[in-house]
Predict the 3D structure of the following.
Amino acid sequence: MTAISSQAAPSGAPKTAPVRPVVTMRGVSKVFSNGTLALSNMSLNVLRGEFLSLLGPSGCGKSTALRIIAGLGAPSSGTVEWPSSKISTKGLPEGDVGFVFQDATLMPWATVFGNVYLPLKLRGVSKDAARPQIMETLATVGLADFAEAYPRELSGGMKMRVSIARALVTKPKLLLMDEPFAALDEITRQKLNDDVLMLWRQTGITVIFVTHSVFESAYLSNRIVVMRARPGQVFADLPLVTSAERGELYRSSEEYRASCAVVSKALHDAIHSAEVR
């Protein structure tokens, strides 16, 4: 059976060893210029090596929280802390964060190689010096043979792999993914879910994955944070421990079904709690 408890260490971490947070949100609230309160007093610790999903209904502030963590928006109140990172003068970690958006957001005039090169180019790394690192990253996502292809020549799933490679090429500590597979067909989505899990296991990177899918969150994560409807805040924090490696057989297992049921109930309760507030 799936165990869901109040505390869990990331897979592979020693049970007795303290795990230092990669990033911490403390009492973060966000009010947009039109007066919309998107987040209210949201606090969250993200531990090294976790695959954490932010789950909640549309408009609950999942993407807003992710963008604040990434430094793409500032909180109206509260703080975002990076205990184990070197902090820039802007209060953000230096080179420790990769971001994958809902759309692949590729430059259509650039090749796959050129798109993945962009973050290194912005750091002043020459193309020749960056080439081994770019090709290694493309091989990791299965696109080494498509380095000279253009986005128009790629399928939707391949474009998203390029986006993931671009986020990984700087070797960040934290990978932020904002509903990256929502627009893809189910077969492609499942394949990319498996690919991301493989990358997580191979690299040990910390992942925060935004989704509104109970099934996707229960399949990918070793921890799920369920958020209330707007204004967003943490409603439930559900560590997941599974007895089997996740793959095609796991998708049809009783263990996965049980996890989905627990997460679905937590989401239902979160939505209902917002209705009665």
Summary: Residues 1-16 have pLDDT under 50 and may be disordered.
